[in-house]
Amino acid sequence: MRSPARTRCTPTSRTGPAPRRRSARSVRERLAAEDGVAVAEFPMVAVLIVMIALLIIQAALIMHTRNTLVDAAVQGAHHAALMGATPQDGADRAEQLLGARFGEALDAEATAVVDDDGTITVHIDARLPLIGLFGPSGAMSVEGRARDEAAW
After folding, report:
1. C-alpha span between 150 and 114 (Å, rounded)
2. How far apart are CA 24 and CA 42, in angstroms?
């Protein structure tokens, strides 16, 4: 009877067997595969979408503020154009409307002048925030005009 063949035990590394060499074809296939693409694309696209949404909201805020300033200037000019009212009454009315809508946040000042042809112009200068409702301010000027009743 034959004795079993003895094999020599060689110590193996703790990391396991040596890695297999891959062919160039399998490396090419792995590089062309799209595994994990969604994980990388989502943050890049999400940042762009959030930035676009914030810009749209900021543009809407600026347009709303501008339209409210124009409306206050026109209402002030119409108030000053009434019989018996002065241009200063129109400026005060415009500031009152802005104070009711925005408080002191815009730091708005209204002035009113009467032209030679009887047109009353209410001019409003305001400082509005450029980033959201806070942050650095930018200047905005609007005018509203009305025809003075006494000049007709």
Report:
1. 12
2. 30
What is the structure's pLDDT at 138?
A: 85
Domain 38-151 has CATH 3.10.450: yes
Identify the residue with better confidence: 30 or 95.
95
Where is pLDDT greater, at 3 or 143? 143
| Residue 78: predicted pLDDT | 94
Helices 37-81 and 87-102, packing angle to 10 deg:
150
- pLDDT for 98 equals 93
Give one DSSP letter per residue of 106-144, joined into a string. S--EEEEEE-TTSEEEEEEEEEEEEETTEEEEEEEEEEE
126 and 139 Cβ atoms separated by less than 8 Å: yes
Domain positions in the chain: 38-151
Secondary structure of residue 145 in the 3-state scheme: strand
Q: What is the pTM of this model?
A: 0.69
9 class by beta-carbon count within 10 Å (0-12 exposed, 13-18 middle, 19+ buried):
exposed
44: its two tokens: 């890049």
